[in-house]
Amino acid sequence: MNKIYTIATILMLCSLNLSAQQLNTSMDSTVTTNGEVTIKGVSVKYSATTGKQPVWDEKGKIIAGLYFTYYQRLGVNNRAKRPLIISLNGGPGSASVWMHIAYTGPKILKIDDEGYPVQPYGIKDNVHSILDVADIVYINPVNTGYSRAVDTMDEDEKRKTFFGVNADIKYLASWINTFVTRQNRWESPKYLIGESYGAPRVSGLSLELQNRHWMYLNGVILVSPTGLGIERGTAVEAANLLPYYAATAWYHQKLPSDLQSKDLTNMLTEVEEYTVNELIPIMAKGGFLPEAEKKKAAARIARYSGLSEKVVMEHDLRIPKGFFWKELLRDEGFNIGRLDSRYLGIDKMVAGEKPDYSAELTSWLHSFTPAINYYIKNHLKYETDLKYNMFGPVHPWDNSNNNTGFDLRQAMAQNPYLHVLVQAGYYDGGTDYFNSKYNQWQMDTSGKLRERMTWEGYRSGHMMYLRSEDLASSNEHIREFLVKSTPKDGQPAEYKR
């Protein structure tokens, strides 16, 4: 009996050992596979390294492990001239899954041409990937993807260290420094790309990397950026939504025939000019706006937004976004998506002030979640029983002292090589396209940096790359940006009078 019990115990311990290996909580381990993809008609062979790299505290103790995936094109003789793209998403609390398997990487999820889920779920080659011209690393901050803090940290310490605008920037910059050193990429031109909240994240990182790690960048790409800590004020904040409302109303054919017959961007030029030249001053008058002027403004807002004058007047000219998403197609029994207003949802009741759920986010999670879990296990060969956090617990998030837009401006001023590209979807109501333009206008009021700033718009929403036409054009715009931001051989980083 004793012998049998001993064997059983050994088997049980082996089983427990195997389970621990499957959970894969190591903070410093990777696996590398090779792949191949055809981009622009050319076969591109690459290696994909995925796993975790540690975050250390100031005493050299590991406090977290960040899950990442790093793609390198094979057969490159001179990596000193090959760009390295460092990719981060936002939330805060969002994994790097979105741009990884839908935008710039060598594989993208299976969806239709407009971005809607299709079965069977899975992935396919990304013929528009930028891997032909740049290497890419996708980083998951703490509590996103498989990234985790060590168990010995208490919750207050985790929040102080990881979950805030400036804490996030500080530890990510340190991690990037280690990554660049490990991968021997200090000579390479380096770029940051950040989507949504990832935009203030990489904007702040541009200055943190430069001033504390002496890592100078060639470019920062802001995809569907948030406000970057740039104050609007109540009047500007309310007025700036009108161009997005107009774009969405145009898409759903809710505008008057003379506006509806125009091309989208031509129509928006008129709305943007009205917003800047007339609506902002009108909103600034608030309750002291004369009634006749208020009614005139309501008529104009109604004309551009697709809503009724009555509704606009009832809201004192200030239409909340949630109400707009509920109201525009209320008579048809639909609500529209927040981050991409092409998407339709169905609420329990037609009545109400805002949609019951986000139609677009539900659709995206529908297609992305099975695809990333399948891809990591079956293609990247990374084994773990940890849950892949599409959205992880990072709240409450400390938003205080958000100066990221001005940090980016300071980094540009200090670094003559540094360029900025902004990409935005016209139908994005979460981080609307017009406010992304406003960011650029206000970042540098001197206008001296404007020649190094580029803005591109797309006829889709927050993740414009989900629409096949925009996937092609947005990746091509990144290629053009890499060329634009690469100095000529021997060109010094200096300002000349």
From TrEMBL:
Keywords: Carboxypeptidase, Hydrolase, Protease, Signal. The keyword Signal applies. SUPFAM superfamilies: alpha/beta-Hydrolases. Residues 1-20 form the signal peptide. GO terms for biological process: proteolysis. InterPro entries: AB_hydrolase_fold, Peptidase_S10. GO terms for molecular function: serine-type carboxypeptidase activity. This is Carboxypeptidase. It comes from Gelidibacter gilvus.
